[in-house]
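Hi P.,

Sorry for the delay on this. The queue was packed all week, but I finally got your sequence through. Input first:
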Amino acid sequence: MPATHANVEHRTPNIEHRIMYSVYLIKKTEQSDSTLRHSAVRYSIFCSSL
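Then the structure:
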């Protein structure tokens, strides 16, 4: 059942992916203050949806 597996995989928390995404965001946000503020808001929304 590929569709069911994909659905479960999507719902299941993937800690490693979140950590990598966090590192990616942090590296991107180091470029500028405006980017930092924007990404911080997006990251807060991302975290609250977990």
